[in-house]
């Protein structure tokens, strides 16, 4: 694996903005089967169930990674969602407009994929280094075609 140090210039924080208190909280993922999707995220990714509730004809849940209380995935299930394409090629997935994926940082992309392969998770393409951002990346798909990126900081 090729490594290189990359410095990304992050602008100075704007503490004077009326939105300066905004923080990331969660991403919502639309799935057709509540129980199956909740089980998949909990068994395949070791997510924890934080809270669940009904909303109209939908069932919702907040799930969090095994050791992170700052980022949650919200499952939206029920009703009759439209079918989403299941991609086996990352480049193919980049063409449609709209939501594409969410990302989770990991210490090692390769170790993460090895464990996910043991858990029969669909890997979308091969892992790759992206020197422009100093990261090694890989993508998986849940059974309903929702993409998840794993990112490792390159040394």
From TrEMBL:
Q: Is-annotated flag, keyword Metal-binding?
A: yes
Q: What would be one Pfam family of this protein?
A: Glyoxalase
Show the SUPFAM superfamilies listed in the entry.
Answer: Glyoxalase/Bleomycin resistance protein/Dihydroxybiphenyl dioxygenase (SSF54593)
Q: Which InterPro entries match?
A: Glyas_Bleomycin-R_OHBP_Dase (IPR029068), Glyas_Fos-R_dOase_dom (IPR004360), MMCE/EMCE_epimerase (IPR051785), VOC_core (IPR037523)
Q: Where is the VOC domain?
A: 23-153
UniProt keywords, alphabetically: Metal-binding
Q: Does the keyword Metal-binding apply?
A: yes
What are the protein's GO molecular function terms? metal ion binding; methylmalonyl-CoA epimerase activity
Gene Ontology BP annotations: L-methylmalonyl-CoA metabolic process
Which PROSITE patterns does this chain map to? VOC
- Protein name according to UniProt: VOC family protein
Give the species: Spirosoma terrae
- Tell me the lineage of the source organism: Bacteria, Pseudomonadati, Bacteroidota, Cytophagia, Cytophagales
């Amino acid at each position: 694996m090729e490594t290189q140090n990359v410095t990304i210039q992050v602008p100075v924080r704007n503490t004077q903005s009326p939105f300066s208190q905004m923080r990331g909280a969660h991403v919502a993922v639309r799935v057709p089967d509540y129980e199956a999707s909740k089980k998949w995220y909990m068994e395949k990714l070791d997510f924890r169930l934080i809270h669940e509730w009904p909303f109209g004809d939908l069932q919702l849940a907040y799930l969090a990674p095994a050791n992170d209380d700052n980022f949650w995935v919200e499952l939206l299930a029920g009703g009759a969602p439209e079918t989403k394409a299941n991609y086996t090629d990352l480049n193919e997935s980049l063409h449609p407009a709209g939501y594409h994926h969410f990302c989770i940082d990991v210490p090692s992309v390769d170790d993460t994929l090895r464990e996910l392969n043991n858990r029969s998770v669909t890997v979308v393409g091969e892992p790759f280094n992206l020197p422009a951002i100093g990261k090694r990346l890989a993508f998986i798909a849940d059974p309903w075609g929702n993409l998840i990126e794993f990112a490792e900081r390159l040394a």
